[in-house]
Each structure stands twice: as C-alpha cells, then as structure tokens.
Amino acid sequence: MLEWLPFDPLQAARFSLILLRGAVMTVEITAGALVVAMALGLILAVIKTSRIAVARVLVDVYIEIFRDIPALTLLFILYFGFAYVGFKIQPAPAAIIGLGVIGGAILTEVFRSGFEALHHGQREAALSIGMTPMMAMRHIILPQAVRITLPPVGNYAIGLLKDTAIVSAIAAPEIMFWARNLVTSTFETTLVYLLAAMLYFCMSFPLAQVVNRLEEKRRSWQ
Amino acid sequence: MAEPLLRVEDLYKRFGDLEVLRGVSFALTQGRKLSVLGPSGSGKSTMLRCINYLEEPDKGHIYLEGQLVGEKLVNGHHVRMSSKELAPQRTEIGMVFQNFYLWPHLTARENVAIGPQRVRGMSKKDALALGEMMLEKVHMAHKRDEYPERLSGGQQQRVAIARSLSQEPKLMLFDEPTSALDPELIGEVLKVIHELADEGRTMVLVTHEVGFAKEVSDEVIFIDEGQIAVHGAPQDVLDNPANERLRSFLGKLLGG
Questions:
Q1: By C-alpha distance, which of A28, A59, A64, A56 is closest to A41?
Q2: What is the mean pLDDT of residues B60-70?
Q3: Is the Cα torsion angle B178, B182, B187, B188 positive or negative in sign?
Q4: Where are the domains of chain A?
Q5: Contact (CB, 8 A) for A88 and A119
Q6: Could you tell me whether strands B227-232 and B219-224 are parallel, antiparallel, or unpaired per DSSP bridges?
Q7: Is pLDDT at B223 greater than 50 in this prediction?
Q8: CA quadruple B105, B110, B112, B117: dihedral positive or negative?
Q9: Is the Cβ pair B103, A144 closer than 8 Å?
C-alpha cells in the first residue's frame, strides 16, 4: 500500500523510536549544561561588575580560555584525558560539565551587558531607600537583567541543543550516538540522518518561536 | 542648644584633579527647609549625595540627630561603615533624584511598597496599602497600577517622592527634582514639595527654581566653587545679594 514511499515506513518508525530514546538524553544534557552555564554566567557576571580588580581579571581569563577552546577538544580532555590520569567521568556528566563551562563564558558576557543596560541610578535609588547592595541586586537589578537577557539566553539554549550532537563523540547516548549506531548496523544512511535532523528540528523550532515571542515583547517595552 | 537634625561638618570631595567640595559646613534644625543654589558644577549635588553617603566624602562628617552617618568611631578613629550598617541609616534620609529612577519592572504602587516590604519587613498587603496612602499624598493614587514608562515625567517624579516618603524619613533630600521636566510639568511637582514643606518636614532642596526656593525655604545657601559663599534667610540672600557671584548667578537665571 505504501510501496511508492522511497523508504520502508515500518523501518522508519522503528528507527524513530530508537532515536527518540536518544532525544531524551539530548534534552537532559541540554538542560544540565544550560543550568551549569547560567549559574556560572550569573556568578561571573556579578563578579565582573564588582569593584574587585583581581577577581575581574580572573573572570576575563576564564572567558578567554573557554571561548578559545573547541567544545570537542574540551570534551576529549574531560572524558579521555581525565580517565587517563585515573579520574573517570561518565559520558553524560562530562558532556554537561564541558558544554556548561563553555556556555558559562558565553553567558557571562550576556548577563554583564544585561546589568550594564541598567542605569546605575536604579541601584542608587535602591540603596537610598535602605536596601543593602545584596537586596538591590536581588529585587531591583536581577529581575530586570533577567528580562533583558531572556532572548539572548534563549538563542544560546537553541544553539546548545544542536551542539549536543558533538557529545556523541564521547559516547553519550544521545540522538547522534544512536543515529551512528543505526547506520553502522543497517547502512540506511540517508533515512537515519534525515530522521535525526527532523527530531532536532521538532525540538528547536518551538524553542525558536518562544524566543521570537520574547524578542517582540522586549521591543514593545522600549 | 539642642542638637540640630542635620549637621554637615567640613566636607571635602575631589574627583581626580577636580576639587568639588572644599570645606562645606552647615547645620539644619528639625523642621527647617534649606534650599541650595549654585552654578552647575559648583558641588551642590555632590554635597547632597554625601549626606546619605551615596558619595563618600574625602574628609568631613555628617551627623543626623547627633549620630555619625556612614562612619563609626573605633578607638576614637572614624571608620567607614559596612554597606549593611549603612543601609538602616539611609532609610532615615529620603532622596529624590533629578531623573526619578523609578524601577521600570514595578508598578507605581510596587515602586513605593517595595521598600516597606523588603527593608522594613512589612507584609506585602500592608506595604501595598501604605504605598497607596503615599501615592494619595502626591495625588497619584489613580495611577497606582501603571508602569513608570506609561507616566509623564512629572508623574514619575511624584511617584518617586511617594517612594521616599514611604521610608518615613527624618530628612528629605531633593536633587534638582524638576530639572529633567518639561516646563509645563514642573508646577505639579513643586506643588507636592510645597505641601510636604507645609507638613513641617525637614528638607534640603537643590534647585534652580529661585522663586520657589524663596517661597518654600527658611534658609538659602549659595554654593560657589565647592564652598558656601552665602548662607542666610531667603529674602536677605535673594532680594539684595551683596555677593558679586551670587548677583551674576541670579541675573543669569532670571535673565535667561
């Protein structure tokens, strides 16, 4: 009945189920790395806007190092390199740490520019009603910085989701890991990789719509 | 003699090579209104910002009801307070900025209520009720749920005044509160400040509105090049200025 299709639909369904199992891992690694990157980015951005010169320089060093190393290289160091010196990290945690640490460098700059978009008078007004600097950060600066930085953070998250494909290189069982295994065992190269692409698209596209919505909303505030 | 509410003692402040304040001293008794006039760059705003320690003076001291502000005595030495120690002192001093600095992510009422809620630990409900009361005082209760960007400059400044009133401050500082406003919006803000003055609040008002200063204040200071050049009653200082610089300053203001 479906002979006109260029592929076997039953086989495609079977492949999709296997790839879906990888998609769960893809989402887990993306979410994990995003949390690590956001936490690091926020902390480092606060330090970078602080008055402590030494700490600011250290943050700059961090940003330069992790902006200038390819993610794949860092993953190999974490996974193979650390294992070689007797410190074994499982593939998924290694992926989360590696991508998160690199994302931290990217998001530090995003959050810093968010903080700097706010006039220092906003903070002074908070201090003058008796807030401590910590309270001013928590109640006045952060809530606004989060709104300003939500669209760029969303864009980063979409990029991150797609970048998780490279962690198949350290055998983290996500979409591309299963795709390559399927290709090796069935030689259905085109079908498998097309299905993988569809899966990535189905996850990224809704995210992109949310980000677009946020960007429109931000534009209407200004 | 009773301790004045505010005592400013020999303030010095420099920014790089620029000496902005060069030995400013004055005292203000409870309930008195002081207007501070002076050319731009004369140091009047810096002096005001030193009073609540948004700016740390290089030398000199501030006393509120006889208590040091921003500093404490340790073995007879003046030591700067930590920001945590300083915060409660700042609640005693209300500050109104030239550019309002309302927080754009909060409504008018939330802008006023967040201090009572977060700093004084009121429940959110009580803080919002207080916020509404303070907005009524500045005739802004009808705009309580608007965000600042939807308010005119005059309305924003009135909300900012309500925000500092919610601290129940002993002293209010106004830093050129109408200088950023379109001419037609100045009146509504001056009216509110006038009403507060009539309530007997102690205030220091940095302004270019000479007529208003004369009307509302008990004392006027003319600051020139970081020093108090003239200090006296408004009619003495403003009607027949003996000081040459003050005369030319007033001439420029009124002529321009």
A1: A59
A2: 96
A3: negative
A4: 9-221
A5: no
A6: antiparallel
A7: yes
A8: negative
A9: yes
Residue A45: is its pLDDT beyond 50?
yes
Residues 132-161 of A with CB under 8 A from B: 132-133, 135, 139-140, 143-144, 147
Which pLDDT tens digit goes with each residue over A141-166? 988 988 889 889 999 999 999 999 99
User: What is the ipTM for the molecules in this complex?
Assistant: 0.94
**Closest residue, chain B, to A120 (C-alpha):** B101
Residue whose pair of structure tokens reads 């109640």 in the numeric block: A139
User: What's the predicted TM-score (pTM) here?
Assistant: 0.82
Roughly what angle, to the nearest 10 degrees, separates helices A9-48 and A175-186?
A: 150
Domain B31-55+91-255 belongs to what topology? Rossmann fold (3.40.50)
> What pLDDT, on the 0 to 100 scale, is given for residue A218?
67
Note every long-range contact of A68-73, with CB atoms under 8 Å and residues 24 or more positions apart, other chains counting: A69/A102, A71/A98, A71/A99, A71/A102, A71/A163, A71/A166, A72/A166, A72/A169
Select the CATH number that applies to the domain covering A9-221 from these four: 1.10.3720.10, 3.20.20.510, 1.20.1050.80, 2.70.70.10.
1.10.3720.10
For A207, the token pair is 């995210």
**Terminal-residue alpha carbon distance, chain B:** 43
Nearest-angstrom CA–CA distance, B148 and B155: 9
Contacts of A133 in chain B (CB under 8 A): 83
Supply A177's token pair.
């890991």
